[in-house]
Amino acid sequence: MRLGAVVLAAGASVAKVGFIHDGSAAGLTLAKAGIYDASFNLVASTASFHGTINGQAGGYHEFALSAAYVVPAFAFYYLGALFVGVTPPALSEVFGSNSNANRSCFTMIESARNRLH
Fold first, then answer.
1. CA separation (Å) from 95 to 20, 58, 76?
2. Integer Cα distance of 90 and 24 in angstroms
3. N or C end of the chain, less CB within 10 A?
4. pTM value?
5. Residue 61 CB burial class (10 angstroms; 0-12, 13-18, ≥19)
6. CA separation for the pair 117, 112 (Å, rounded)
């Protein structure tokens, strides 16, 4: 599992998570992303997207959470990605950026991005 820290504002509604990968994923049987609170409790997650990411071209890709997560308090949160299978994709080493020009390995998007600026 890979984790990256982000700061989220209270009241932000997060519907998707995104990350940059290199396109090398193959033979995955599980691929999920999620949001963890400061105590590392899973508070939101995606369905498995292994069928989508296997053989997908590299670059920035977004995946919908099973339900939008409304951030209860301004704090550090962690975005995580889990890949199980033959060849997991390589992810960017840069975390926490919300810049469109330099997207991080994991980014909160939509209204969360707007509230952080």
1. 11, 17, 13
2. 7
3. C
4. 0.77
5. middle
6. 9
Residue-wise pLDDT for 67-100, tens only, equals: 999 999 999 998 888 999 998 888 864 333 344 4
The Cα–Cα gap between 5 and 41 comes to: 14
Q: Considering only CA atoms, which of 72, 77, 67 is closest in space to residue 4?
A: 77
- Convert the chain into a string of H (helix), E (strand) and C (coil): CEEEEEEECCCCEEEEEEEEECCCCEEEEEEEEEEECCCCCEEEEECCCHHHHCCCCCEEEEEEEEEEEECCCCEEEEEEEEEEEEECCCECCCCCCECCCCECCCEECCHHHHHHC
| Domains of the chain, start order | 2-116 (2.60.40)
Query: What is the distance between the alpha carbons of residues 25 and 36, in angstroms, rounded to a whole number?
Result: 24
